[in-house]
Amino acid sequence: MGDMLLIALVAFLGAAAAGLLGALALRLFRHRSLVVSVTVVAAVAVTAMLAGTLAVAWGMFLSPHDLSVVTTVVAMAAVVSLLTAVVLGRWMVARSEDLTLAARSFGDGGVFAAPVQPATAELAALTRELAATSAKLDSSRERERALETSRRELVAWISHDLRTPLAGLRAMSEALEDGMAVDSPRYLRQIRTEVERMNDMVGDLFELSRIHAGSLTLTPARISVYDLVGDALAGADPLARELGVRLVGERIDAVPVEVDSKEMSRVLGNLLVNAIRRTPADGTVAVAARHSDGGVVFSVTDGCGGIPEEDLPRVFDTGWRGSDARTPPAGAGLGLAIVRGIVEAHAGRAAVRNVTGGCCFEVTLPAA
């Protein structure tokens, strides 16, 4: 038993010496290629075995012939091990270079194309993560391009919508100033109408800028859905009467919600005004509010005839109008964008779908 312990101690000391040298070599070559590191690891393993074997062999006083046999066997094992380490290292480096090239094209703004050659489990996992990141960034770039397009359209539309009433205001003011206005009260009423329309447009722009900047401050309070819908219907009733549209309150559940009543009144008001203006005379705009598993669902159904399927994803985009009209009551295309921003600030969601004869806008809010 004592001899075995002595042999184990001698072998351990020889292998430990080789291991310390190998650790020093790895530290020196830690910034070099992976081939060098793998070769060093293989060399350390073989050298540790050789050192332990030779230490024990010398301690056992083997004959020169036996010692040379042991040394030759270990040397051959070392050669095979080192060759295997070099081949493995070169294969791993090649797979790493393939992944580097794919990542470089991905970083240059292209689409990440995963290498076709098989790789290690770690490199394969990294490849999958890069592919998933590429898909997310591609989707983000698409959204950014769509947002930039909508912003440019908005600037063009707002410029047109502001220029038109300003030109009219200047013409009417010059007519009044020169005493050329035949019906001064009518001119003054028209000036007030145009000023109010421009004020509404500027107010919408300010509200949208607060939403996009994340500075929209909410003051939530517990309120009944019945009261919220009732106030919105009362506010939209004059416009509906003027345009000959019937407002109908269908199913309205008297359930509570915790919202900013002012902002949510604006949401329902925007939806109702949009629905009334898009519904032909003698048409019907139906409002409903019901409790569901996902929260409280407000819906406004109009008789606009429906929205083209290709336009449905853009309905809530900034500047979307649904037509090329640039005259009142087309608006600046901000109302539905404001609706989505306010609803999302309440941790809700806004959606639209086509129904028979029109479309249905739905706003889902968390239940109180």
Automatic annotation (TrEMBL):
Species name for this entry? Streptomyces camponoticapitis
Q: Report the superkingdom from the record.
A: Bacteria
Give its E.C. classification number: 2.7.13.3
SMART domains linked: HATPase_c, HisKA
Q: What UniProt keywords are attached to this protein's entry?
A: Kinase, Membrane, Phosphoprotein, Transferase, Transmembrane, Transmembrane helix, Two-component regulatory system
CDD domains this protein is in? HATPase, HisKA
Q: Which GO terms describe its molecular function?
A: kinase activity
List, for all copies, the residue spans of the domain called Histidine kinase. 157-368
Instruction: Check the record and name the Gene3D superfamilies matching this protein.
Output: 1.10.287.130, Histidine kinase-like ATPase, C-terminal domain
Q: Where are the transmembrane segments?
A: 6-26, 33-61, 67-88
Record localization: Cell membrane
Give the catalytic activity: ATP + protein L-histidine = ADP + protein N-phospho-L-histidine
InterPro entries on file: BphY/WalK/GraS-like, HATPase_C_sf, HATPase_dom, His_kinase_dom, HisK_dim/P_dom, HisK_dim/P_sf, Sig_transdc_His_kin-like_C
Give the organism's phylogenetic lineage. Answer: Bacteria, Bacillati, Actinomycetota, Actinomycetes, Kitasatosporales
Please provide an example of a Pfam family that matches this protein in its UniProt record: HisKA
Q: What is this protein called?
A: Sensor-like histidine kinase SenX3
